[in-house]
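Before going further, learn to read the protein records used in this course. Taken together, the tokens spell out the fold as the letters spell out the chain. A record is reproduced here so that you can trace the correspondence yourselves:

***
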Amino acid sequence: KVKDDHEIDLIRKSVALAEEAFEAIRAEIKVGQTENYLAGLLIAELRARGAETTSFEPMVAAGANSSLPHYRPGDVLVQRDQPLLFDWGALYKGYCSDLTRTFLIGRVAPRIKEIYQVVYDAQQAAIRFLRPGVTTRQADRVARDLIEKAGYKDYFGHGLGHGIGRDIHELPTMRYNAADDELRPGMIVTVEPGIYLPGEGGVRIEDDVLITHSGCEVLSTLDKTFEACHIV
């Protein structure tokens, strides 16, 4: 659960590689490409930058597929006026990163824009709450309460996040119905609330967060505001 300084440095590098690879393909995202094509570009960029491989098979989900939290990319085409969700990570010297960004291409349906802001606010609230002594259920509840108050209780079906390290899913598990572990300095967890509307689309935003002695540090830096993730 708790990482030493060397492990933290390796995870920082893994996060940086994942971000660099994504920045390299972002300008290449175009309507008419397939999910598989974009996943392949991402894998190639990760390896070109020194990652051993991906930390898991990248998820690229276009349109309504973004409402499936554990989707595998296929030959579905990227289309205008639909969300496009990327969930990816690097494996660097045995250590994983795990990030998600949801892009909105063209005209954004009002409900999708609404859930984007709710997810963004829920993630920001949870990150502000993270510090030593907080429990995993408490952290999950901060984000879940905000999503429930917005009317989307039934559309956030997974936990807030999980530990990462040598494995992509490690303890602690931040979920309201999982073991209630106390966060400690040196833990690195994902913070990844989402809202998934069947047949319409979904939004998830995920960052990797280090628990410090005084609070927490977000290791990932890719912009996640609506404006930054709206591709006109």
The helical segments are 5-26, 35-48, 110-129, 136-149. The CA atoms of residues 29 and 38 lie 7 Å apart. The mean pLDDT is 97.
